[in-house]
């Protein structure tokens, strides 16, 4: 099974939900369960529908494996909460297809919260 | 997407609507048409190189027509303000971005900028007369609110350090929220001394009593008393916003500033407009965007919000791409229960799915104007006071089952009782007299609200005017009107209203 290495960064205070660490490095399988279940083992994947790992899956993965507290501040209705910007390789994810963008090896995904106040 | 189907719902596969693209036309930058886009701003695509010029243009479009005292008809006239510049800084995203943009666009001759990409360099060099600084002096003002909430951390030092590291040539002016109840601060910014005044919040008449020697003159205690007396979390947030704004305005004037800039983004303005209107602030909807403040004709300050056409998303991207450190703002206790927090949640959600709707809120409100003229200024928020507030309120709801009576103050023979209601705008009256949804009974035992220093001064001035008018009934019957005006000192004021004091 091939894997994808990703650089994840959190900004705007979002890092407080992820062990106060701004930068993380992840390795994800290139093919994942279509229902975004990140706990499905590699063997069990053959029995379920699969898809290439995309940003939608990444968000679920981060919630299930890296998030320390308050998941409702990160995710809402199966996507990132409103007020959180996502950059894929320094580009607005709305230009790359949002959750449907298929992750590539060495991609950099940044999650920035806009809700500091201002 | 066209699907071939027989129209029979029992055999038809689910028709999937194609996703509506979040951008018009192509993924290339709408400005240069060369680079791939990096950000979508309300359906328009911009590259990273063109983005700075977009923000710069939006700031100048709002700010520059308001810089010179008189609107300039000629575009060639140079920008020259009549006074200095004050920038309100809260530590939040908007004010961080505002300070950075203003510094790059207008103050680059006095600050060391990291880079000026996208910002037009001055033609003829920085010493050309055309490129004289717009404002002679620039100060950054920060209002610390921590004293009002036990346990909240004080960020003054952190903010001072941040500003020293990044904007060392700008003067830092720290202000504290309790200054609103501090006579020494009031004197320093040129305010007239006033008697201590407290308002009783148990009735809608908001009876106010004045005392010469207040038992509790510590500004921090008065601030905490003010906050604890406010009836709801919404009222607390609204009242604090007002205190901050007025503190900044008086401070700006004391530094001979002709302009005060605040970092309210388009998103924040839309939130504030909806939140304010829901609390009865419709009469001052224009002032939410911009206001010319001069409550006592001692010198006007223009309060401008240069980021009012820039969304929170754009501010966030600017801060990220330029590595700006955002200190952040403290949240009020129970703030999430207030109207503003609920409105913010709604607007932020709306902005993600329907970005143009948020700008529509601000643009629509900008077209509104009150039908009637203001009847003076509210003594609390110093915004236009609409006539007939109490008549309207008495028509739309029953607030009390019996006539309100002034509270007795027999323990303080020097106190004077008046109703505050006719001196407050609808919004401020609602803030002070609102009822929690949990019932009429208040959570806090404290129902006596000390008035901020400016409100006491305005009230005193207005009561003296009323007293002088009442003392001269004979003139109404004379053939000729005789007007005599002179400035009164505190002793004369006391003498003028002496017959109304309870001895």
Automatic annotation (TrEMBL), chain A:
Record bears the keyword Transcription regulation: no
Location of 1-thioglycine modifications: 118
Record-level GO cellular component terms: cytosol
Mitochondrion among keywords: no
GO-annotated biological processes: protein urmylation; tRNA thio-modification; tRNA wobble uridine modification
Glycyl lysine isopeptide (Gly-Lys) (interchain with K-? in acceptor proteins) crosslink location in chain: 118
Gene3D superfamilies in the record: 3.10.20.30
CDD domains according to UniProt: Ubl_Urm1 (cd01764)
InterPro entries found in the cross-reference section: Beta-grasp_dom_sf (IPR012675), Mopterin_synth/thiamin_S_b (IPR016155), Urm1 (IPR015221)
UniProt keyword annotations, A-Z: Cytoplasm, Isopeptide bond, tRNA processing, Ubl conjugation pathway
Posttranslational modification: C-terminal thiocarboxylation occurs in 2 steps, it is first acyl-adenylated (-COAMP) via the hesA/moeB/thiF part of UBA4, then thiocarboxylated (-COSH) via the rhodanese domain of UBA4.
Family note: Belongs to the URM1 family.
Name assigned to this protein: Ubiquitin-related modifier 1
Organism name: Lentinula detonsa
From TrEMBL, chain B:
Subcellular locations according to the entry: Cytoplasm
Keyword match Signal: no
GO biological process, any: protein urmylation
Gene transcribed to yield this protein: NCS2
Keyword annotations of the record: Cytoplasm, tRNA processing
GO cellular component, one term: cytosol
Principal place of residence: cytoplasm
Pfam families: CTU2
Function field: Plays a central role in 2-thiolation of mcm(5)S(2)U at tRNA wobble positions of tRNA(Lys), tRNA(Glu) and tRNA(Gln). May act by forming a heterodimer with NCS6 that ligates sulfur from thiocarboxylated URM1 onto the uridine of tRNAs at wobble position. Prior mcm(5) tRNA modification by the elongator complex is required for 2-thiolation. May also be involved in protein urmylation.
Record bears the keyword tRNA processing: yes
Top-rank lineage group of the source organism: Eukaryota
GO molecular function list: nucleotidyltransferase activity; sulfurtransferase activity; tRNA binding
Membership in a protein family: Belongs to the CTU2/NCS2 family.
Name under which the protein is recorded: Cytoplasmic tRNA 2-thiolation protein 2
Biochemical pathway: tRNA modification; 5-methoxycarbonylmethyl-2-thiouridine-tRNA biosynthesis
